[in-house]
Specification:
alpha+beta; D-amino Acid Aminotransferase, Chain A, domain 1; globular; Dna Ligase, domain 1; 15 helices; Rossmann fold
């Protein structure tokens, strides 16, 4: 096992990793920007090193500064969390080159699965169903028109090297495609340095289903069931739950087996998530992409599976085999996560950084967890993600979990900044959400009509 690890992240995920490491008896090193000098992760870690100014490009995305901090503190491994450098293949490879274990997959696997075209081709080889679409990258609007004519409208334009909702446009008809292609391609180039696109037929409405997998260094891959992430705004997840109300025992087995095949086909190591679209009308599911890191919504899977995903990430990176087989994983009860962000729903969810003057996070009772890195008097900086906390509940069944989440949101009190807490409470109390009658279209077209 490692003696010391560095956490190349900030916020609640950095705090989550520090806590897991401490429970494993591992010392931790936090890195922080000047804007995060008083952040909770810097206070909880055994050591903390400033790596640059507030801008992420000069601190949390500064590979040389982070590696220098790891060498200086004699850290044996680096956990990247999610976001920032977590899916940066160059960073993973450089860690390996300087003799520091990257807690995640190799850079080569990241390149394979991070490039949507390569991933699509790999999934076809592995017998994982994919959405009908272009055979490779599409570089011009003219090429896009030809592909769309072949597969039929509506289509989804996606950045080949993209993620996080960037470089994505839905196109309903041919006359809108050229403008959408140029806008999405420019956005992709600005965010990822690559303007290449690809097209897929739109499976809509659908369920956004993702399957959590763990893979050790010996090639053993296990899935921990699925999460339903269909409640989204502008392709960004708002609320997640596990298991999905739309999936029965047979389909759960099929989609889980497909996720395992996907990971095995690329020699995957560590935690990862295979994302699918489920067409409820036909019962068919299609591969969308793989996230080669731990995800924001991992706690709902931890609640229903009983597996500490972050601890397993660290153990796998240290060379330990998975302590369980697929037949040992039994999903129990139901879990829901609500993301509480510093944003103003009344003004199109505009970010609301500032000082938290008062804070009460819900507590008490079995099956309630709050992951957060804020405290009364903490100032949310304007440079990063606006997440304040994740509220996660677990119940004996879905209704039990829904009622527990409603209770938790009623108790939540945050003053000093605008938040989406009331919006989340309205959402979790909506009769259609309670009935499970929603898909990827629900939030934007029904709950938040224009």
């Amino acid at each position: 096992m490692f003696r010391k690890i560095l956490i190349a992240n900030r916020g609640e995920i950095a705090v989550r990793i520090i806590r897991a490491a401490r429970e494993l008896g591992i010392a931790t090193v936090a890195v922080y920007s000047t804007a995060d000098k008083e952040a909770l992760h810097t206070l909880l870690a055994d050591e903390a090193i400033c790596i640059g100014p507030g801008k992420a490009t000069e601190s949390y995305l500064n590979i040389n500064a982070i590696l220098s901090a790891a060498v200086l503190t004699e850290a044996e491994a680096i956990h990247p969390g999610f976001g920032f450098l977590s899916e940066n293949s160059k960073f993973a490879t450089m860690c390996d080159e300087v003799g520091i274990k990257f807690i995640g997959p190799s850079g080569a696997v990241m390149d394979t699965m991070g490039d949507k075209i390569n991933a699509r081709e790999q999934m076809i080889k592995a017998g994982v169903p994919v959405i009908p679409g272009s055979d490779g990258e599409v570089h011009t609007a003219e090429e896009a028109l030809a592909v769309a004519e072949k597969i039929g409208y509506p289509v989804m334009l996606k950045a080949s090297a993209g993620g996080g909702g960037k470089g994505i446009r839905k196109v309903e008809k041919a006359e809108d495609l050229v403008a959408a292609f140029e806008t999405a391609s420019s956005e992709a180039k600005a965010n990822f340095g690559n303007g290449a696109m690809y097209l897929e037929r739109v499976i809509y409405p659908a369920r956004h289903i993702e399957v959590q997998i763990l893979a050790d260094q010996e090639g053993h891959v296990v899935h921990l069931g699925e999460r339903d992430c269909s409640l989204q705004r502008n392709n960004q997840k708002v609320l997640e739950e596990s298991p999905s109300i739309a999936i029965g025992k047979t389909l759960r087995h099929e989609i889980g087996a497909a996720a395992v095949r996907a990971a095995e086909s690329v020699g995957y190591e560590n935690a990862g998530t295979i994302e699918f679209l489920l067409d409820e009308a036909s019962g068919n599911f299609y591969f969308m992409e793989m996230n080669t890191r731990v995800q924001v919504e991992h706690p709902v899977t931890e609640f229903v599976s009983g597996v500490d995903i972050v601890k397993e990430q660290i153990r796998i990176a240290a060379g330990q085999p998975l302590p369980f087989k697929q037949e040992d994983i039994v999903l129990r009860g139901h879990a829901i996560e609500c993301r509480i962000n510093a944003e103003n729903p009344a003004f199109n969810f505009a970010p609301s950084p500032g000082k938290i003057t008062n804070l009460y996070l819900p507590s008490g009772g079995v099956g309630l967890r709050v992951d957060s890195a804020v405290y009364p008097g903490y100032t949310i900086p304007p440079y990063y993600d606006s997440m304040i906390a994740k509220i996660i509940v677990h119940g004996e069944n879905r209704f039990d979990a829904l009622m527990k989440m409603q209770r938790a949101l009623y108790e939540l009190d945050i003053e000093g900044v605008q938040t989406n807490a009331d919006f989340q409470l309205d959402l979790i109390s909506d009769r259609r959400v309670i009935a499970g009658d929603y898909d990827t279209s629900f939030l934007m077209e029904t709950f938040l009509p224009k």
